[in-house]
Amino acid sequence: MRLQGKVALITGGAQGIGRATAERFAREGAIVVIADLNLPRGEEVAATIGEGAFALELDVSDAASVQAAVERVLAQEGRVDILVNNAGITRDARTVKMTEDQFDAVVAVNLKGVWLCSRAVAPAMIARGSGVILNASSIVGLAGNFGQANYAATKAGVIAMTKTLARELGPSGIRVNAVAPGFIATDMVATVPAKVVQALEERTPLRRLGRPEEVAAVYAFLASDDASFINGAVISVDGGLTL
């Protein structure tokens, strides 16, 4: 078990890739904190995982909520070894029809949330001289996507933030990396019309959507000592879609 005894805080851990990551980390021996705005669902996931997992309510876009969550974990477990900034939302629309509220909401969660959570855990990691921060980007942050100017901008911003944090925190023994999933079979993709999904599958060299568990496996590798010299990287998990 590569994460034995590590304390992992996973935002948006109640569903999709976040849930798969929580479950994978638990199997790898980690103490998993499922931090989600939907506390009842987070508690259900924690109960499913069993011993070594618990849930807490977290709004990543709110600095006070983030600080309170991190302080609780530090008080209860004494440290945060791994932060997975997984929480994210979409508010899709063509730019000419997108409202400011739609734009601002996505920026607040997908970009500011990554910064707030990273800022909150960094001091304790620096004090311990070790830690791992993993950020959820997306292939649309690399290539853009129709109707997702807000989402694509945040995911591109996450890449730049990842590289900056890797430079800032690396000297303190903290590794910061990003994962850029392609189209994964989650609730978010389930809202996409079937013909669009089929077209995406046909464009992907592996001819299918990814599975949440496949992204979780990459997070588990990056969180482990097997990735001890990987810092500032962006790992695409997209079946070759961006080739």
Report on this structure.
The chain has 243 residues and is an alpha/beta fold. It has one domain: NAD(P)-binding Rossmann-like Domain (Rossmann fold, 3-Layer(aba) Sandwich), CATH 3.40.50.720. Helix content is 49%, strand content 16%. It is built from 9 helices and 7 strands, in the order βαβαβαβαβααβαααβ. A 7-stranded parallel beta sheet has the order 3-2-1-4-5-6-7, sandwiched between helices. Helix 1 links the parallel strand 1 and strand 2. The longest helix is centred in the middle third of the chain and has 29 residues. The protein is globular and about 50 Å long. The model has no long low-confidence stretch (mean pLDDT 96).
Q: What integer is the average pLDDT?
A: 96
- As residue ranges, the low-confidence spans are none
Multimeric status of the protein: single chain
**What's the CATH class label?**
Alpha Beta
The CATH architecture name reads: 3-Layer(aba) Sandwich
Q: C-alpha Rg, in Å?
A: 17 Å
Counting helices, strands and paired strands, the structural category is alpha/beta
Largest sheet: 7 strands, parallel
Strand arrangement, major sheet: 3-2-1-4-5-6-7
What is the share of helical residues?
Answer: 40-55%
Count of individual helical segments: 9
- CATH fold-level assignment: Rossmann fold
Order of helices and strands: EHEHEHEHEHHEHHHE
Q: How many separate domains make up the residues? A: 1
Give the CA-CA distance, first to last residue: 33 Å
Q: Care to count the β-strands?
A: 7
Query: How much strand?
Result: 15-25%
